Amino acid sequence: MTDTHAANRREDLRLITGRGRYSADWNPPGALHACFLRADRAHAEIVSLNVKPALAQRGVAGVFTGADAIAAGYTRFPSFANYTGRNGQPMLKPDRPVLATDKVRFVGEPVAMVVAGSALVAQDALDAIEIEYRDLPAVVTVEDALAKSAPQLHADVPGNLVLDMETGDAAAVDQAFAKAAHVSRLKVATSRVAPNPMEPRACVVSYDAAADAYDIYVCSQGIVMMRKQFATLTGIAEEKLRFHLHDIGGSFGQRSAVYPEYAAQMLAARKLGRPVKWVSSRSEGFMSDSHGRGLEITGELALDRDAKFLAARYHFDVDMGAHLTPTGPASHVRNPTTLMTGVYRIPALHGNFRVVLTNTVPIAAYRGAGRPDIAYAVERLVDHAADELGIDRAEIRRRNFIAPDAFPYKTPTGAVYERAEFAAVMDQALKAANWAGFEQRRADASRQGRIRGIGLSTIIEATGAGMFPKDQVAIEVEADGKFTVYATSLSQGQGHATTFAHVVAQALGVPDEEVELRESVHGKDLTGNHTGGSRSMAGAGSVCRLAADKLIEQAKPLAAEALELEPSQIDFGDGAFRQRGGDKVILLQELARNLAGRKPHPMNVMAEATVGSTWPNGCHVAEVEIDPDTGVSRVASYVAVDDSGVVINHAIVEGQVHGGVVQGVGQIFGEQVMYDRASGQLLTGSFMDYTMPRAGILHGMHVGDHPVPSKLNCLGAKGVGESGCTASLSALANAMTDALRPLGIAELEMPFTPSKVWHAIRNAQAK
Ligand code: MCN
Fold first, then answer.
1. Can you say how many angstroms the Cα of residue 746 is from the centroid of all Cα atoms in its chain?
2. Which of 65, 98, 543, 765 is deepest in the core (most CB within 10 A)?
3. How far apart, in whole angstroms, are the C-alpha atoms of residue 476 and residue 601?
């Protein structure tokens, strides 16, 4: 097993001293620049489109439209999810154009692309494009999209409903509800949010006519997935697509997909014979990068006389935006289904999904990808039930946790949880948060004119099982005896260069600096998953360990030969092969250097494994304080205790939890993409009107861990990348509800903006 450490991240010095290499940093000689004409309205037919005046502008090299994309056969936008709805009806997958042809379906949808010598010239030329629209009514909510009179977004999606699906056992749930002593019901909604990674989206494409191949520099989460999606969309063979993936300034799930702009750039690079570069502006990002969350969930919980859970049913209204993305359906349908029971033993479950298209930016995975949403619904409902029954919120959870001896635990919707210790995790968190001493703090705050509340959430996640059936990792031995590790994952800030290298270095018994990680490198014939679903450590990370072990096995006969012994006479340890009972020794790196003349190096290895989901879980406790005069809330303290299995690097894991929690804080207190319901216009198109969290909103966070090693991979690691997001929404909302309930304010919905909170307090006081 790998030991734990808290080494600083090896990549940080390079990144914070400006030596990162982001997509926009690529400037191939002779590059042209692209700009996109985007729909300025939510729903309209394109009556006419005349790009000639733009083409005539000085400096413009080309203008491309949807017709060019269709002519090139770029028509199969990937959508990997296949769900079956009621009566065997498969999920509908309407076509998504690269550039809109007959219709625009959301504000920001690309309609044409101008390519010019500079981005400014291209931008100016957009104004010369003549386009005539016939406006159609727009729908930006699920309710409006499902209304009988609603406009149809896609001719082949009747009623804008792509999937009407149920899961679980409706009859068993009905029976349980019929005999329940108490039923609690709560409707919640997670706001639609804009992920807003620090680096705006960017892509550079050049076409190599001699090889009929494309070089693509793009922000992404991993090469294999990206290559497959580009190939699916364009029909171009995967081996003709050469990806150059380097640093990314964050992603949060948003960069796992191919986007229309990239395909349009490929068209242009080929036709014009010059590289084509596009860098999104932040405003463009708000209206064209996928959004996240946006689920409305109504939950009902049936309880017996002892407040034990008998059954639960959930109704999900899922807004997918104007088109399906590759990750949207899995995020919003599969993940909530998997986790509908949360950390509780609930004998019967039923879920009902309506998955709907609206005139808004397409929705995709966003850190947590449906897990924060279902945890939010479950955990708020459990708190609601506790309140209705007058039971302590920790106590109702304790009575219903899946017991430690019940694992592996098969949930009513078919997921199989690995071992966890929910009660022990919660106890640790409650202790760290001084839950028992809260009423005193509430009273102290009240004396100072402030309203204080505390909330908890106890959650579980299923990390990504993997789009590709196996993860491969290669280790190549360099002439100087150093080791280069290749994987198909791609760090967007998670610190793989530190942790993966550490895993290998530890196994090989060499200092971490002797091992370098290179991810998603073109030309390495590896298959495996991208970085997403918090699966990289358990997936590629654990295969790093297998590869290192394999390298030692492979090197053993070579070491024996060098020592003039039989392999059975030597052992490996602390970076060297040693004669058993003798004094002959050869260092692994010395052996590596001695054999450097052989090509390929005889110690090079490739290892692979099939790694499914792991089941991280945790308990977060948030304490909030509200200023009733302004409605401004602050997080007075925050405790996160997570079971991430064996932790490889504590500093990184703590950073991951911090980052995720702050995203939750952002969403709970301000972040929300808003559209005008009548016109479908995007109202939050910049940081002027979209509230990102500021550093001061969260003080003094305590991160603890309660590791229950996973048996599902050789490191014992579970994921952690999304834990902060998954647990924080409900912990914070429950804390706000706890603060406001004594005033007679029952349930508010996120975001808890100062104005919403202030008005609620004023209305309550007026009563
Ligand atoms: N780790 C560890 N011990 C464990 C588990 C993980 O030391 N038991 C370390 C890993 O080695 C890795 C990091 O923690 O360096 C996260 O590992 P893991 O949970 O396996 O998650 P991934 O590396 O697969 O990252 C994906 C996850 C997701 S899905 C999103 S979205 C996300 C996130 O991570 N986006 C991020 N964290 C992010 N962090 C930053 N800075 N930027 C993003 O865009």
1. 31
2. 543
3. 7
How many Cα atoms within 13 Å fall on the side-chain side of residue 720? 33
CB 337 within 8 A of CB 329: no
Question: What pLDDT does residue 7 have?
Answer: 67
Which one, of 661, 560, 551, 651, lies nearest residue 607 by Cα? 551
Return the pLDDT at 380.
Answer: 98
Which regions of the chain are under pLDDT 70?
1-7
Q: How many CA atoms lie within 13 A of 438 on its CB side?
A: 24
Residue among 8, 490, 534, 648 whose CB has most ligand 1 atoms within 8 A, to mutate: 534
Question: What pLDDT, on a 0 to 100 scale, did the predictor assign at position 1?
Answer: 37
- Residue 266 and residue 234: Cα distance in Å, rounded? 9
Which residue among 491, 499, 537 has the greatest number of ligand 1 atoms within 8 angstroms of its CB, and so is best to mutate?
A: 537
pTM score of the predicted model? 0.97
CA 494 to ligand 1 center in whole angstroms: 5
Q: Report the separation in Å between the CA atom of 18 and the middle of ligand 1, taken as the mean of its atom positions.
A: 22
Q: Residues with Cβ < 8 Å from 134, sequence gap 6 or more?
A: 44, 45, 47
Pocket of ligand 1 (CB under 6 A): 197, 250-253, 367, 492-496, 499, 531-537, 541, 644-649, 652-653, 656, 659, 717-722
* Centre of ligand 1 from the C-alpha of residue 194, in Å: 20
HSE, CB side, 13 Å, CA atoms: give it for residue 301. Answer: 29
In this predicted structure, what is the pLDDT of residue 263? 98
Q: What are phi and psi of 387, to 5 degrees?
A: -65, -45
Residue 254 DSSP code: T
Distance 496 CA to ligand 1 centre (A): 8
Instruction: Take residue 713 and report the two structure tokens written for it.
Output: 């991979």
Q: Are 28 and 204 in contact (CB under 8 A)?
A: yes
Q: Whose CA is nearest to atom 34 of ligand 1?
A: 721
**Strand locations in 320-407, DSSP E?**
348-356
Going by CA atoms, what residue is nearest to atom 5 of ligand 1?
719
How far, in Å, are 35, 253, 666, 730 from residue 658 at the CA level? 36, 17, 12, 16
Measured CA distances, 630 to 110, 485, 756, 760 (Å): 41, 54, 10, 11
> Which residue CA neighbors atom 32 of ligand 1 most closely?
252
What pLDDT is recorded for position 81? 85
Q: How far is CA 105 from the centre of its chain?
A: 25
- The CB density around residue 629, as the number of other CB atoms within 10 Å, is 10
Output the CA 355–ligand 1 centroid distance in Å: 29
Got the DSSP string for 184-220? EEEEEEEEEE----SSPPEEEEEEETTTTEEEEEE--
Which residue's alpha carbon is nearest to atom 37 within ligand 1?
721
Let me know if 443 is exposed, middle or buried by CB neighbors in 10 A (0-12, 13-18, 19+): exposed
